[in-house]
Amino acid sequence: MPVGLFRVCLLVITAIVNHPLFFPKENGTVPENTEEIIQKMKEREESLRLEQLRLEREIADQEATQKALEKAAVVEEESKQEKVRWDMWTALSMVIFLLIELWRQDFQEGNWQDIGGEEDDMAVLGKAFKGVALPDKAVLASFYEKRILGTTGDMARMREMVEGFADDLLEALRSVCNRDADMEVEDCMGVGSMYENWRVRKPFVCDLIVPFAPPEPYCFRCQTWCSGDSFPPDEQGYGTIKVCRADEDATGCICDKTKLGEDMLCLLHSQVSSTRPSSEMEDLLCFKNTQYLDADQVMKWFQIAVTKAWNRISHKYEFDLSFSLLDSPGALKIKFKSGKSIAFNLTPVVQYENSDVYFISHFPRSSLAADIPSSTHWFLTFAVYERRFIQLVSKTLPANACHVSCLQILSFLHGKQCSLTGPSGLTNYHLKTVLLHLLQTRPSQDWAPEKLEARLQDMLKFLEKCLHEKKLYHFFIGNGKVPAELGFPIIFQRAEPLNLFRPFVLRRDIYRKMVDTFHEMLRNMSALINEYTVHIPLAHTNGIRKE
């Protein structure tokens, strides 16, 4: 009962408090125009809805853009990872390939240096020898005596005559040159087949090289492909010759090698001496706007100097002197009134440091330097050391050794074959290189005169192997077994071996012609030898074979 009374009282009090008469009139919230307010609320609601839709679209676009950027970043990261993996595999493959190539070259080089002890390998070679029989000892001996010895008897007298005239011509050349401005010419030296006693084909031509040096106070600073400077592969075997002042070379100043800055001055060299006029360098036979000796300029100067020298001494001789070949500036010819003539080559060279290696401007009658990169690149010739090596080895060989005979016979056969089928890339220098390799690897007793036929076969098989592999290494460059008695520069012994057949790797037409000429020579060998061999009675031949 009390609870019920309490609830009734509470209800009455609540009704009284919430009665409208208890609030002032001005605080009333009942609007006077309900429809207008409702319309504005609807418009506001529509505006908010459109704004909400716009915001939702912007958020969606931003999310799509963010997803696209994230996807692009993921793709780029994956591509980077893939590229890194690909680069890693490429690098690894290249390393493996280079290791295999180095191993293969070392293996082949080792085989080349050990040819003397690998008769089985040499027997496996010689596929071109199938069906080809070399003449026997008697026929070879008769051929050599009639065709080779019969035509080389006048070489010594010709060498003596040419050397004497060349010395007189160079002495006259020194007298017509300006000692203060022109190059200084030294004494000439004989090189090549005429001075190594294996030239067989006429006309006999003496090859003389003439070292020269710049006038004071200048000097030559030589750079080779193996001296640490970067040379492309096609420039191996070449070098450059820089004309410098002697004091620059002696002091070793670094002002030409580094940039000192505009506000710094070298105390050893003034600005006047460091920047020489281009005309001065051209007078020193340098290439235009450089300090590098130009081979073409040297040959032009040498031709003019030789012409002046001959005009001075021509009254002393009863013959004429002329330049015989336009493409060989140093090719000279002596013409006698009787109609006979003597040809010789006088080629200017630059000495490499204090050795007998020389930079040569061009090779007369040779394709060794047919593709010189530029006139500032000079080929290196080792002809003096080659001559000394043959002389040194000859002292250890048996009497009347057959090494020179082998080279003479091959040179004669190759020349005859080229006269029939045209010239090829194979030269007498390649044949000589083959002989030098065999002289180093074969024991001395293997070069006895009665073993001419066997050694001739060795040279042919060795050459066939080189043609097959397209590799014939220069004898001196990269050869650590050069006799110490020669005094050969160590820098060339430590260099990478120089492949003389490298130019033929890319020139397949010349390589094919060279191989065809070699095989054709093998097939025609017996016919060519028999053509120049006197008739030998059968009984005499059998007697020789029994011996």
Automatic annotation (TrEMBL):
Domain Mab-21-like HhH/H2TH-like: 404-477
UniProt GO cellular component terms: nuclear outer membrane; plasma membrane
GO molecular function term, any single one: protein kinase inhibitor activity
InterPro entries, sorted: ITPRIP-like, Mab-21_HhH/H2TH-like, MAB21L/cGLR
Keyword annotations of the record: Cell membrane, Coiled coil, Glycoprotein, Membrane, Nucleus, Signal, Transmembrane, Transmembrane helix
Main location (coarse class): membrane
Lineage top rank: taxon: Eukaryota
Keyword RNA-binding: no
Phosphoprotein is among the record's keywords: no
Membrane topology designation: Single-pass type I membrane protein
Pfam families the record matches: Mab-21_C
Entry's localization field: Cell membrane; Nucleus outer membrane
Signal peptide segment: 1-20
Annotated coiled-coil segments of the chain: 38-72
Family that this chain belongs to: Belongs to the ITPRIP family.
Biological role stated in the UniProt entry: Enhances Ca(2+)-mediated inhibition of inositol 1,4,5-triphosphate receptor (ITPR) Ca(2+) release.
Protein name: Inositol 1,4,5-trisphosphate receptor-interacting protein
Source organism (scientific name): Ploceus nigricollis
Lineage of origin: Eukaryota, Metazoa, Chordata, Craniata, Vertebrata
